[in-house]
Amino acid sequence: MDHLDRLEAQSIFILREAYKKFGKLGMLWSIGKDSTVLLWLAKKAFFGHCPFPFIHVDTTNKIPEMIAFRDNVAKEYNLDLIVHTNEEALQAGMGPEKGRLVCCKALKTDGLQQVVTKYEFEGLILGIRRDEEGSRSKERVFSERNKDSEWDYTNQPPELWNQFKTDFPKGNHIRVHPILHWNEIDIWSYIGREKIPLVDLYFAKNGKRYRSLGCAPCTGQIDSNATTVEEIIEELKNTKQGERAGRAQDQEDSYAMQKLRKDGYM
To answer: Where is the Phosphoadenosine phosphosulphate reductase domain (predicted)?
Structure first.
């Protein structure tokens, strides 16, 4: 069993453990590389059939290629896909010009909470990684939120020797992070090994590509000539730039993601 096999086995164990321990679950799918790898792992964990719905919180600001990819994959894999938009916020004129953090909270955090409340999800499965961003390094595989999805990052249980806390007070909301222990190169190596289809925005065109995907007004490209998975892996081995360097909300506030995630952001 090699490194990728061990990562895959651990993630599949976490997915199955979550399905066994918790009630109604949903899986967040942002259409990016990490959540698409998580989708692939879920299909493997449950023998080609995903026993829970996939959720896309649509801000209406996504890059068009992302939406086209979402719809094609959902149809090909016969996914139970919930697409939700915070219509009230949009009708009130919400957008990035109001401030990146304000917009993210209204269209993503509040939008996600609306989905959790409407469909009565007890837990959500997300494709976040510890190495991606500082506040995510404070996470646990099984992470407790209160009934309003708020996260107390100062009070996290230890997860030693792969022993996970899965008993939580009734009414609290649980986030499950099956690929928390992966890093960016692991993700790309697994994509290459498994030949996982991705939106082509990750691959360079005219000397530019996206390393991290989000809303169009808040996501910048990086200089790159990497047009294949192998070239991306080689590029990552030599870069000194952070994965989210192109995300505008991170530049607006050094603690942007921690503030958003404390309030329930994905």
So the answer is: 26-220
